[in-house]
Input
Amino acid sequence: MDCISTRLPYRQTGAFTKIAVDYIDQANALKPFYVYTPSLKGIQQSIDTRKRFPTNREVLVQELKKQYGDLSKDKVAKNINALLSADTFTVTTAHQPNILTGPLYFIYKILHTIKLAEHLKTSLPQYNFVPVYYMGSEDADLDELGHIYLDGKKLTWDTKQTGAVGRMKVDAAFLQLINTAEGQLAVLPFGKEIVGLARECFKKGALVQDATFQLVNALFAGYGLVVLLPDNAELKKQAISIFEDDLLHQTPSDIVSKTIEKIQAAGYKVQANPREINLFYLGDGIRERMVKKDLAFTVKNSALTFSEKELLKELNDHPERFSPNVILRGIFQETILPDVAFIGGGGEIAYWLQYGEMFAHYKVPFPVLLLRNSFLVVEKSWQEKIARLGFTAGDFFLPGQELLNKLVTRESKNETKLNGSLVQVEQLYESFKKQAGAVDITLLKHVDALKIKAVHRLQELEKKMLRAEKRKFADQQRQILTIQAKLFPGNGLQERYDNMLYYYAIWGKEFIRELYEHSLTLEQEFVVLLEK
Output
């Protein structure tokens, strides 16, 4: 696989939220909600702050070595050991363990993290930077995480398991899903290779978080990526004071709620609302909200109840049973990692902007925020179809009707615009106004009304002429719709829909290599990747 790439401003794609594109453009309205700009200068300032925070590097490295066992070799082992040094910092992205990596942006986030860490090492050689994938394995939303799309077909993991998805086990239904995927992929050049890797990682009885860890490690260990499984008692001990404050005093909820009011006042929608308590209770098959009622703490949809004393004992004896929700996950992550930059999607950036005052309250360093890289991958055969219509792949971010209008205007032999004629009409009515005004000045408004009515009717004629001409381009319209359905499945971005397995089955490891080569670092632009 050999590719070239072009770039588009995120705003031009029309596919990202106002808060995301305003953050990229450094809009003044958002400046109160983050600490450092997404720039090399911002990274340097983040490093200076991080140096003064007491990250427990020994525990982090100890738990990573337990997690990896014999799997950490070469670059990964070197990066894990480097974390003991005060001059080593992490660049982190986070994502849930979507089955078989879920949508394409799962790997785009990881590759951006790898590329940025390498760029920073080159730009700031006095420091080391380790790329980290923080796995949100405690997420319990199987409806979101339990399916993939392969070339337009939805494959769903039909399991009866409940609770945190990362703690679920690979079962017969999961293996059947892999079998179904093989039926679609085996005919492609590298289909058997990627299906074989999936089978090797997702063995019956394995935890989903462990299987996902193995798959991600197999794909990215060569790039030095460190995968962190934070569902870990020793790591959660580092954040017990914050968890306790949330349980007893609901401080995070109060702080974030006030920040939300300011964000709304600045004209933006809120991404995540805090609850009174922002911790879940984790147990066998459950991840349920904790609720304070009078002097007791209960776990929703269970018979579990704790007094304040019992709850604090449970938290200190079994911190692994407490799971931060979206409000607390980020501050937990930044407590256990020597992080200087966080890479996330538009939704993640939006809710991290809600956390700045909470981080300041707990004196935890707030990282540089970067919008993750985005790609549109266009196979050569589809480029040829696009070129025959006289367009580029970037043109297809426009609505289908707008593309067709451009094509008709460009290629029609008949003139469908009345621009020149409308100017003449304007001039004609100006002469009428002079003539009528000389007779009676009160007639001027009547002439203006006649002009508006005439111009409106001519504009309607223009639209009808264009519609009639477009009917002569029915084949081209069908081609435009077919191309858009391929490039924007489900009327959304390809990266939010398609799964990596399909593209790996076509191009093998070279697909990941090309994405890596064309991944950006601090540029913050949308990349269109074109197969040569």
The first strand starts at residue 3 and ends at 8. Residues 3-237+327-372+499-531 form one domain. The mean pLDDT is 94.
